[in-house]
Amino acid sequence: MCGVVGVYHVDPQISPRLAYYALFSLQHRGQESAGIAAFDSGLKHKKGMGLVTEVFSDEDFDALAGNSVIGHVRYSTTGLSRVENAQPFVVQSKAGSIAVAHNGNLVNYAQLRNELENEGRVFTTDSDTEVIAQLLSKFLLKTEDVVDALVMLNNILIGSYTLTMMIDDVVIGYRDPVGFKPLCIGEVDDGFVICSESCAVDAIGGKFLRDIKPGEAVIIKKGKVEFVQIVEPKRMAACIFEYIYFARPDSIIDGVSVYDARTEMGKVLARESPVEADYVSAVPDSGITAAIGYASESKLPYMESLIKNRYVGRTFIMPVQTLREASVRLKVNVVRGNVRDKRIVLIDDSIVRGTTSKRIIEMIKKAGAKEVHMRIGSPPIIAPCYFGIDMKTREELIAANYSVEEIGKLLGADSLAYLSLEGLLKAIRKAGGGEDYCLACLTERYPVPVPGEIYDSL
Ligand code: SF4
User: Fold this and answer.
1) pTM of the model
2) Active site residues
3) Which of 212, 321, 404, 413 would give a disulfide with 374, using CB separation of 3.0 to 4.6 Å?
4) Residues 6+ apart with CB under 8 A from 122
C-alpha cells in the first residue's frame, strides 16, 4: 500500500499545494512517510517520516514551487522504515532530473539491483523504487524518447508498479500491464492531477476524467495531456483487496464504486452465512460498509459495538500482555450498553493474523455480550502477497494454517464464516465490475511469475 500523486498546474505556487491535499486524502494508503518533488528551473524535494501534516509546513510550499510536482505517501513493504526510503526518489543524471514515486513491489528487485550494481551503479537505499529510478535514468541515456524508455522499463520489471514520475518538467503516470494498483486522472482549473484514487480528485475540487488502463501511460508536457498504451495487456489483474479493504469507500476504481462493492459483499455474506442475532455491528472502520450491507439484507438492525479513536497515531509494540491489550483499547473501545446480553453479528473486512480479531472479541465478551458471531467480508487469506501488501509469509496468515472452524475457536467466536470466492466475485459484478482480478492471496494462483508459486497467466 502506498499513494502516488502527479500534478501539473499553470501556477507554480498552486501545484505543490494541490499535491499536498491530494496526498492528505490518500493518507489511508500509507502513514509512514510522505514526500513531494517539484520541478521549477531544477528539481527540489522534501520528504520525511510521519503523516502528511507532520512532514510539511507552510514555508515548504514556497520552497517547492513549480508547475510540475509528484508526491508519495508510504507504507513500507520492501525496504526498512527509515527516511532514506521515503519517496519520491530523486536521481540526477546526464539524461535530466528524475523523480519516481511507486505504489507496488518488484518481484525481481534483487536480480535487477544486482545487475545494476555490476554495471557500477551505486545504491543509497534498500528500496525497489530506487531500482526503477536508476533503470529509468539508464534507459534515458539510450533514448531521449520517454515512451521508448517506458517500453524498455516495462520489458524488464516483474511485479506491481503503479508510478508517478517526473523527468525534468514532464509529469508521467504509469500503471503496470496487469494493473495491480489503481491510478486515475482528474482535471482542475488550469491543471491536472494524477492520483491513486478518485477520492483525491474530489478532495481538491477536481473533475474525474478517467482511470489509467493497465499498461498505459499518461504524459503531461507543458500542460498538454497525452495517453500512450506502452504495452498491450495480456490480462488484467487489479488487486481485489482495493475493494475489500485498502481503498477509501468514496473512491471509484476502474468504474466500480468501492462503497457499492463493499455493501454488496455484506449482502452476499448475509445470504451465504445468516445467523440468529439481535443486531449487526462492524469492526471500525474497515468493516462498516460491509456491515451495513449485511444488516440491510438480513433485516437486522445495525448498531455500533466498538468506537474507534481516530487520533491514534503509531502505537508502540508493548512488551507485556497487559500493555498489549491496553494498546488495542487505545484504538477501539466497547459500547457497553449496546453489547450487554446481546447476540451480535460482528463484521470485519478480512483476517490476516487474527490477533486483533481475538482481542476485540474478548473485549466485547468481557463487556457482557451473550454471543459474538464473526462474519468476514472476504474469503480466507491463504497465501502471501508479493505485490506491495504487507502479507509476506504463510506462517503469519492464520487461514494458511488452520481450518475455518479452528480459527473460530482460536478467536473465541461463537461462530465464524467467510464470504466465498464466488460470492466475492458476484458482489463485484453486481457493483459493475468485471471478471479479471488478482486473487492470488485467496487462491494461491499468481497473475505474474513468482519463484516457487503457481503462475496463472489467465
Ligand atoms: S495477492 Fe492479494 S493483496 Fe496482493 S495484489 Fe493480489 S489480491 Fe491484492
Assistant:
1) 0.95
2) 2
3) 413
4) none
